[in-house]
Amino acid sequence: DNGTTWKEHCLEESQNAVQHILNYSFEGDDFDEAHTNRVTRIVTTELPQYLAVVSRLRQEVHVIGPEGGVVSSTAVPQVQAIFPPNALTKKIRVGLQAQPISNELVTRLLGNRVGISPIVTVEPRRRKFHKPITLTLPVPTAANKGMINQYNGEAPTLRLLCSITGGNAKA
């Protein structure tokens, strides 16, 4: 396999087998300390060529009301959601997530034809605001070798890709 096909790792062992493996493999480890240091233990009988640990992104959550406010990402400080006064009629919890995408990864996957900004989500999804909110995102940075696009000699083009779906359901 070349790493292009991925599947979720499912544990097919019994609870007793897992406990035996943990007791045998990690003798003397303090499990409380491992949890606070963000250590993840993966139990498997096969070791794949490629392995990725995927976790949910950190979500900044603030209560925003009729007075307005700002939610900023700690993962990508340039990402902000700005709510002007009266964009909301009541106080609600607003979540903001930002996932940066490395230029090296984009170049490996797509060549130097594109630059990608962070992926951003705002929750609650499908919420209608009474006034427009402002989402601030950093402009994608070009690859080290210079960006090439289909318009020779012209400045790079900028496109915004959006999704208004919540979960896996169709919009």
TrEMBL record:
Residues 58-171 form the ZU5 domain. It comes from the Eukaryota. The keyword Repeat applies. This is Ankyrin-3-like protein isoform x5. InterPro entries: Multifunctional_ANK_Repeat, ZU5_dom. It comes from Triatoma infestans. Keywords: ANK repeat, Repeat. The keyword Repeat applies. Pfam families: ZU5.
